[in-house]
Amino acid sequence: MKSTLWHILGAGSLGGLWAARLARAGLPVRLILRHEERLKAYNAKGGLTLSEQGQRQTFPIPAQTLDDPQPIVRLLVACKAYDAERAVARIAPRLAPGAEVLLLQNGLGSQEAVAALVSQARCIFVSSTEGAFRDEDFSVVFAGQGANWLGDAQQRPAPVWLDELAAAGIAHQWTPNILDRLWRKLALNCAINPLTVLHDCRNGELQAHAGDVGALCDELVAVLKCCGHAQAAAGLHEEVNRVIAATAANYSSMYQDVSEGRRTEISYLLGYLCIAAERHGCQAPLLNRLRERLIKHLKVKGLPSD
Ligand code: NAP
């Protein structure tokens, strides 16, 4: 049986990582780029390069722009959370009836916004702990093994194409509790990333601020429970400590965004959490204070604070 074409919106770090592995497994892939200028730059490079365990390989994956008329049956949205809604709105008319849309965005908020835009499609939320970065334009380094948890917030059954991910060597697991997974990752992020930015430090250096981390974890647990995600709260403090120890030498993703002058995904991480807490009438003084300090810090750095 012929495989369905994978359209990949956003040929950045994670989009490139997925596209290259699917193409390497012989599966049909199309990249969707912003506009003609990016398409020309991509074609001039002759394809997408993946570096994995010291091996570099270029895959001549065909690409198109958002305006291409080709219908889309399976779409992987791999742009940042703050770009996802606008980008998907541009290609929504191209989605075939019954199309499937996989959302790779970190945090929460963008998934619901996209799902509301494309009610004719089935949305699958993905929580990824894989790590990748761009060493050049259209060139991706697979920097950290991890897992991809996939799930359907409306509890429909697992799609049949998960075996394509297996064939492509993309570590994955279907979960009936994808929202709990996303909330859990959001909470871990809120406990660690903003503090690394404000203390200008690697993850491990938060061990010197164990009191602050502990207090934040207590509040996060209370907020998760209050927002109806008690499962995501279990053992949070212990996991935060484990992550800090296991990634002691690393800089958090938010730290890296700030230090490289890139926009952060704050509105979909700490921002989302504070607003959700308020909506549910939960007390979150430490998280709100942390958010205010982070926003102030971003403004001082001349970075967007939304
Ligand atoms: P990234 O490297 O910045 O890539 C984003 C890509 O989206 C860029 O190639 C960008 O195009 C493209 N894009 C943005 N707007 C677009 C539009 N309107 N049309 C077409 N393309 C558009 O970001 P990333 O690191 O892959 O992150 C993607 C998501 O995955 C984020 O939510 C992130 O938090 C999450 N995530 C990332 C990692 C990781 O290790 N990288 C791990 C877990 C989760 P240009 O190239 O033209 O700028």
Describe this structure in a few short sentences:
With 306 residues, the chain is of the alpha/beta class.
Question: What does it look like?
Answer:
- It is a single chain.
- The protein is built from twelve helices and twelve strands.
- The chain has helices at 13-24, 36-45, 81-91, 110-117, 162-167, 178-198, 210-226, 230-233, 236-246, 253-259, 270-279, 285-300; strands at 6-9, 29-33, 48-52, 55-59, 63-65, 72-77, 95-103, 122-128, 131-136, 139-144, 148-151, 172-174.
- It is globular, with a radius of gyration of 19 Å.
- It binds NADP nicotinamide-adenine-dinucleotide phosphate (NAP).
- The site of NADP nicotinamide-adenine-dinucleotide phosphate has 27 residues, from helix 1, strand 2, helix 3 and strand 9.
- Shape descriptor: globular
Order of helices and strands: EHEHEEEEHEHEEEEHEHHHHHHH
Q: How does CATH name the architecture of the largest domain?
A: 3-Layer(aba) Sandwich
Find the CATH topology of the largest domain.
Answer: Rossmann fold
CATH class of the largest domain: Alpha Beta
Report strand %: 15-25%
Gyration radius, rounded? 19 Å
Summed up, the helix count is: 12
- Given the helix and strand composition, which structural class is it? alpha/beta
- Averaged pLDDT: 97
Bound molecules: NADP nicotinamide-adenine-dinucleotide phosphate
In spatial order, strands of the major sheet run 5-2-1-6-7-8-11-12
Q: How many beta-strand segments?
A: 12
Q: What count of structural domains?
A: 2
Essential attributes:
21% strand, 43% helix, eight-stranded mixed beta sheet, Rossmann fold, single chain, 12 strands, globular, 306 residues, alpha/beta, four-stranded mixed beta sheet, 2 domains, binds NADP nicotinamide-adenine-dinucleotide phosphate, N-(1-d-carboxylethyl)-l-norvaline Dehydrogenase, domain 2
